[in-house]
Amino acid sequence: MSFDYSKYKHGEVLPFLPPKHDPITEPDWRKVPQPKPFIVRPPKGAPNVLIVLLDQTSYSDPSTFGGAIKFPTLDKLAAEGLTYTNFHCNSLCSPSRTALLTGRNQHQNSQSAVVDGATSYPGDTGVRPKTVAPLAEILRQWGYCTAMFGKSHETPPWETSVAGPFDHWPARQGFEKFYGFIGGEKNLFSPYLVDGTTELGVPRDPDYHFSVDITNKAIAWIRATRSLAPDRPFMMYYAAGGSHPPHTPPKEWLDVYKGKFNQGWDKLREEILERQLKMGVIPPGTKMAPNPPDIAKWDDLPDDAKEVLSRQMEVYAGYCEHTDREIGRLVQAIDDLGEKDNTIIVYIAGDNGGTAIGALNGTFNEWSNLNGAPEDIEYLKTRMHEYGGPKSYPNYAVGWAMAGSTPATWCINACQGGGQNQGMVIRWPKGFKSKGEYRTQYAHFIDIAPTILEAAGIPEPKWVNGVEQIPIAGTPMAYSFDDAKAKDRHTVQYNECTGNRSIYKDGWMACVMHRAPWESRPRVDSYDKDTWELYYLPDDFGQANDLAKKEPAKLKELQELFHQEAIKFGVYPMDDRSFERLNASVAGRPDIMGDRKEMILYAGMTGMAENVFIDTLSRSLTVTADIVIPKGGAKGVLVSQGGLFGGWSLYVKDNKPKLAYNWLARELYEIEGSEALPEGKVQVVYDFDYDGGGPNKGGTGSLSINGKKVGEGRIEKTHGAVWSLAGETADVGVDAYSPVTEDYDAWDNAFTGEIVEIRIRHKD
């Protein structure tokens, strides 16, 4: 049975079908009227679209929302547009981003948590269902030029290699142009970049910075599309690297905020609250919520801790302002082309609250905490001269995230204010007259896509690419553009993150802290034992007054509503595991390696993220390299994994084999071969026997040439949980990312002989 298009309005079925023509019986073209070309164009007057998203920026970090960090671009757009002070995200990166890009809730997108921790439960597979078409795909099929620049953290980890499939890469999600990286984060000085579905490797530029690069590429793309296709509007998604860790701005921004945070996070919160009340960002009389007990009082900290912790915030602040100024360059370029007033600009200052990976002390190397080796203040002080520079991978202490959530508290992972309050500004002079005003209506990431469609005059599609669509869950926001007192239309919203959860309805919010972001285990052993909190936000935006005991009937009503919404949107079952979910076999998701105990590698295989490489953590293994040594000897890397902040490398130096194991940029273990490699075919073997007894333990390694042992040594400490996920790569024949060791040049380290094959085999 053929599809009945007559049931649907124009644009509710995509793609558009070209008109049908009767068979042509006349052979002479001169006698046949030529039909008009079939070209799809958006409705007349449809605006350009620029969506800007910052990463892990807290609600009150920007000056626009009373913060101490200058955001001149956001401030200017707010003065020219509308500032939404009651805007909300999900509590983690991937769920928020898929909600933004589709207008559906996180579990409808099957993104319960970060995509790296996906399971096989329907609401948590990490695979966006085909029943959910992204905004970019809709606009593309309507004739928009579409592009994305920056970070994409929505691709299933087992699909991130050159083997594909590429269906869930940005370039196959409606963005005709994608330039940036796939994954949660990268080293901003030497990221492994992707253009479309082509891996570009690492820029060889000592002055490179990711934020500058993506801005340059975004400007070039807009200029080109305006030159070549000025009749087609553009849709750009600029997903900034800032202010996600590592907190590493260009060197000229490291000291811009020197001494600006010596007062500490407690005093900073008071200063922010005072500014917010004066500016009118928050309702008069708003009280500040107390920090969790784990967050130390600043005045109780020793001087060494204050010195270390204040430096962390100085660097972070410089990083934030630099990111905002790069966005300013992009906005100015649009203005220079005369397109700014015809562009609806949505600038969202963060996707999930401030980061907590730094835990209570912060980190010089983020991967320390993730590998069960936190850095104390004494150690951090020894690295302060490098903090924020290219030899650091830093993250501030969570106390600064709490300050950034003022007047609320908490941070990423939390479903309280600090984990889901987010600042947002919209500028669109052709769409509304209001300027420099606040809007207090409740709004959420899922509201952006339907707002854009409504602004463009494009209907929500019912079918896309042959698949019937589930309805958009968000609410268009245009009703509030020119009516500050308009009654809220988005009245109910749930949020869930690894067992932490909340439900909002008509100003009331009930929420649960099931496990704090820095806690390794849930606070209770079953969800029915959780302690619920209750707030009435119109009177208590900071969530300082818990009404759970005073209003038990209202709390019960909201608990039941959460249950109903959870069933409706596929929230259940909630999975409160933490880092265990990074292990594919434990989490139950697909794994490109499957149950394989051995991997055979060949020359030219570079850029392999941790999720598409054999597991080399906390286990005994053998690395066998079959190579050919030319006359006169050879040098260079045979195989490496990780880099400057943790990794291992098997390489040749002075024509002798060598193994370097970099433990968290804190200790370097080396095993050197005592004999030179002969010319011709050679087999080099690195054998590692793990001590056992759990993760992060040591072991004994040995090197052999053609079966003869030529070196042995101890590796006392190992990575037990993660190398760096998508941050670093495994490479054959080169150390292509940041170098594991300074024993070879960061750029010129390719093996000068021939690699026949390399085998990595588990011994257990």
TrEMBL record:
Q: Where does the Sulfatase N-terminal domain start and stop, copy by copy? A: 47-458
- InterPro entries, A to Z: Alkaline_phosphatase_core_sf, Sulfatase, Sulfatase_CS, Sulfatase_N
Coiled-coil segments = none
Q: Which Pfam families match?
A: Sulfatase
Superkingdom of origin organism:
Bacteria
Q: Does the keyword Metal-binding apply?
A: yes
Q: Which keywords annotate this record?
A: Calcium, Hydrolase, Metal-binding
- Return one GO MF term: hydrolase activity
Note the Gene3D superfamilies from the entry: 3.30.1120.10, Alkaline Phosphatase, subunit A (3.40.720.10)
| Entries under PROSITE patterns matching the protein | SULFATASE_1 (PS00523)
Q: For this protein, what is the EC number?
A: 3.1.6.-
Q: Which family does it belong to?
A: Belongs to the sulfatase family.
| Name of this chain's protein | Arylsulfatase
Q: Which organism is it from?
A: Variovorax rhizosphaerae
